[in-house]
Specification:
Blueprint lengths: L11 H17 L13 E5 L6 E2 L2 E8 L3 E4 L5 E5 L4 E9 L2 E2 L2 E2 L4 E5 L3 E2 L4 H11 L3 H5 L9 H15 L2 H4 L16 H15 L4 H10 L8 H8 L17 E7 L11 E6 L3 E4 L2 E4 L2 E2 L7 E8 L2 E8 L2 E9 L8 E7 L6 E9 L2 E2 L3 E6 L5 H5 L6 H10 L2 E10 L2 E10 L2 E11 L2
Parallel strand pairs: 1-10
Antiparallel strand pairs: 1-5, 2-7, 3-4, 3-6, 6-9, 7-8, 11-12, 11-19, 12-13, 13-14, 15-16, 16-17, 17-18, 18-19, 20-21, 20-22, 20-25, 23-24, 24-25
Helix pairs in contact: 1-10, 2-4, 2-7, 6-8
């Protein structure tokens, strides 16, 4: 099924109703009874040293099953499909180029679950601390005895604290948080700051890797201060502050899935019906979303397992929705870029209850509450997005009730698909 992220440009009542229907589709068509939440079958992420590693050879060696191999894209993205392999998995990237120059650094990472896994100097350091040894020697014949997610998380905490990167990462796990190797991304900024800090203290990455293996960072006591000095300001994005040298500035609001940007991150965007540029990253060859109608148009650019849907209203850039390819529910929604000039209004909280089970609330800033029940309820059943969803997925949507009072609106509805009928309630609270 095509990504549902495009639904966000419609009235938000439509978003919640459609996402609930999408959850029904996922549940009704899932022979493995996973409750409507897709189980990852891939392992992949970004390989970067700050700048992306392009054309790098990625090797995956798991606790069981045959080895897997792939090559990174120009953005450093990589992905393999898991079939018959047993977690945990050790991953290595070597070769390729960085900024057009040969990459001479071999890096490693380790996965305990499927999904996102990055390969960077930070993940390499974490592996070194986890195994208390040299990652490259370990990868030649990886053994996972004594390794688990808790031990690796403890290693990550020690590395981040010892290098002064804990606050810079802003709670992002550099191993498993999706990111882009572009300025303004918290993980990428941390990598760039680490590179600059090592030069500032007159040391090298191999020496730091050896310190991580031993757990003794005494020789790097000055590194946290150098990292702090090297980190960019909090404005984020290559445009810096509130302006861009080209394009327009947009601000990211995070969804339920992590990344690819950080909450509140500002980026510079140039967009048309044929190309998209976000900071230094360029996208091309979009597909047209056929379910929207004038004055709205939407174009979907795909990269590294994500759909970037660019929405235009009356020919002007309106927003960019980011979700997993073939997203089945809101848990696959990564977030949304909105024009930074948007301001005012109140925060809208959307609570969805499907079959009596409440989902994680959705919050959207800078919204304006309806002025009446008629305005809130008008047109929900006949909205073209809902009709398009029904035609695309075979879901039958029925709205059974609608009310609005004191800035709280409620929609009761049912969705039918694959012989299953699921009731759901969607509550919208403006300013609550």
């Amino acid at each position: 099924m095509q990504s549902l992220s495009y639904l966000r440009f419609r009235p938000l009542r439509t978003l919640a109703v459609a996402l609930a229907a999408a959850s029904l589709v996922a549940c009704g068509s899932d022979d493995d009874d996973t409750g409507g939440v897709a189980t990852p079958t891939t392992l992949g992420g970004v390989a970067a040293v700050g700048a992306p590693i392009a054309g790098g050879a990625v090797s995956v060696a798991c606790a069981g099953g045959s080895p897997l191999n792939t090559t990174t894209s120009t953005s450093g993205a990589w992905q393999v499909t898991i079939g018959g392999q047993t977690l945990p998995c050790a991953v290595q990237v070597q070769g390729g180029t960085v900024g057009g120059a040969p990459n001479a650094t071999t890096l490693h990472s380790i996965a305990y679950t499927l999904g996102t896994l990055n390969i960077t100097p930070l993940t390499d350091l974490v592996v070194a601390r986890s195994i208390a040894g040299d990652p490259q020697a370990w990868f030649a014949a990886p053994r996972f005895t004594g390794l688990d997610a808790a031990k690796t998380q403890a290693a990550l905490t020690q590395i981040a604290d010892s290098l002064g990167l804990a606050s810079a990462l802003k709670g992002r796990d550099p191993l498993t948080t999706a990111f882009q190797a572009v300025a303004g991304d918290a993980i990428d900024d941390a990598l760039e700051a680490l590179n600059a800090a090592l030069q500032a203290v007159g040391s090298s990455y191999p020496a730091l890797l050896a310190a991580a293996a031993s757990g003794d960072f005494t020789a790097f006591a000055g590194l946290p201060a150098a990292v702090a000095q090297a980190l960019p300001g909090e404005t984020g994005g290559s445009g810096g502050g509130s302006s861009c040298t080209s394009g327009v500035q947009m601000t990211f609001t995070a969804g339920q899935a992590a990344g690819p940007f950080t909450e509140g991150q500002k980026v510079c965007v140039e967009a048309s019906s044929t190309s998209l540029k976000i900071d230094a990253k360029t996208f091309s060859n979009p597909t047209t979303n056929p379910t929207v109608a004038p004055p709205v148009s939407a174009y979907i650019f795909t990269d590294a397992g994500l759909n970037y849907e660019v929405v235009f209203l009356d020919g002007k850039l309106y927003e960019i929705n980011i979700a997993k390819v073939d997203a089945a529910s809101i848990v696959d929604f990564h977030g949304q870029l909105k024009l930074s000039a948007a301001s005012g209004g109140v925060t809208l909280t959307v609570d969805v209850t499907i079959g009596g089970v409440a989902s994680v609330p959705i919050t959207v800033p800078n919204q304006t509450a309806p002025t009446s029940q008629d305005e809130f309820c008008a047109g929900a059943a006949s909205d073209p997005t809902l009709n398009g969803l029904q035609a695309q997925t075979g879901v039958t949507l029925t709205i059974t009730g609608c009310s609005f009072a004191n800035n709280v609106g409620t929609i009761q509805a049912t969705a039918q698909s694959f012989g299953v009928t699921v009731p759901y309630v969607v509550k919208f609270t403006w300013g609550g």
